[in-house]
Design brief:
single chain, mainly alpha, 9 helices, 68% helix
């Protein structure tokens, strides 16, 4: 048995719940830093950017699972759903900070979405991320009927790359 086979066997025995716990710790830490005033001069902006960046990092980690398996043989497939849901959790927190702390006025939402193109693309990315993440629970999964297995996941899976555009557009990263 090779070293990689041993690693894959050990990974197959690990539960997935620690990914959720460890994955959400940076978000709770960022919220704690914001609540205690240790995020700098613009704490709402810093918290919003930090949560959005964490969402993007977990999205990229979840998308990197399959290429990592193909190129190196390291099998992390069972953790891909957890990484995607942690990314969606960070994305929802990022959106909540923008809506509740940054804007604070529900009348400004549509004006802000239409005024700033990167927010428009970010909202489209959030909507496209909601589509595949709704399959996380067994009771929300589509019925397996027909030749293609129901109303399928692949319709929203290809849109996840859209999430990178608002960061690039706003000049935050890359």
């Amino acid at each position: 048995m090779t070293g990689l086979q041993r690693v894959n066997l050990a990974l197959a025995r690990l539960p997935t719940w620690p990914v959720y716990v460890v994955g959400l710790l940076p978000a709770f830490w960022a919220i704690w830093l914001g609540a205690t005033g240790r995020l700098g001069v613009e704490p709402i902006n810093a918290l919003e950017n930090r949560l959005g960046l964490l969402a993007l990092q977990f999205l990229i980690a979840g998308l990197a699972v399959t290429p990592l398996r193909r190129w190196t043989g390291l099998n992390l497939i069972r953790f891909r759903r957890a990484l995607g849901l942690v990314a969606m959790g960070h994305l929802a927190l990022h959106l909540a900070v923008w809506l509740l702390l940054d804007l604070r006025d529900w009348g400004l939402i549509w004006a802000d979405i239409l005024k700033r193109p990167y927010i428009t693309v970010g909202m489209l990315a959030f909507a496209s991320a909601c589509w595949p993440s709704r399959f996380c629970c067994r009771w929300l999964q589509p019925p397996a009927t027909g030749r293609f297995g129901g109303w399928g996941r692949s319709a929203g899976d290809g849109c996840t790359g859209l999430s990178i555009l608002p960061f690039r557009w706003a000049g935050c990263i890359l």
